[in-house]
Design goal:
- The chain is mostly helical.
- It has four helices and no strands.
- The chain has helices at 3-11, 36-50, 56-61, 65-75.
Length: 76
């Protein structure tokens, strides 16, 4: 799993936010489009793509996309 691929898959979960907004240091919860449904989409995507189970607390404790990526790698 590479960070750039993860960022692309993460960005695919958003309909209205420009893909250029998504970088490793993006604070995803600050995005205008972020919602609880976004969190569920991310959890489902990680489960489907990486076979890793995330919990709501995992999302809460992550600030940036890279934080979330590192957390997923630690669970792999």
């Amino acid at each position: 799993m590479e960070l750039t691929g993860f960022i692309e898959k993460f960005a695919e979960q958003f309909d209205e936010t420009d893909a250029a907004e998504f970088r490793a240091d993006t604070e995803f919860k600050a995005l205008e489009e972020w919602s609880s449904l976004s969190a569920l989409s991310i959890i489902a995507m990680v489960d489907e793509e990486y076979d890793i189970t995330l919990k709501g607390d995992d999302i809460k404790t992550s600030e940036t996309i890279e934080d979330l990526f590192n957390l997923i790698q630690s669970k792999a």
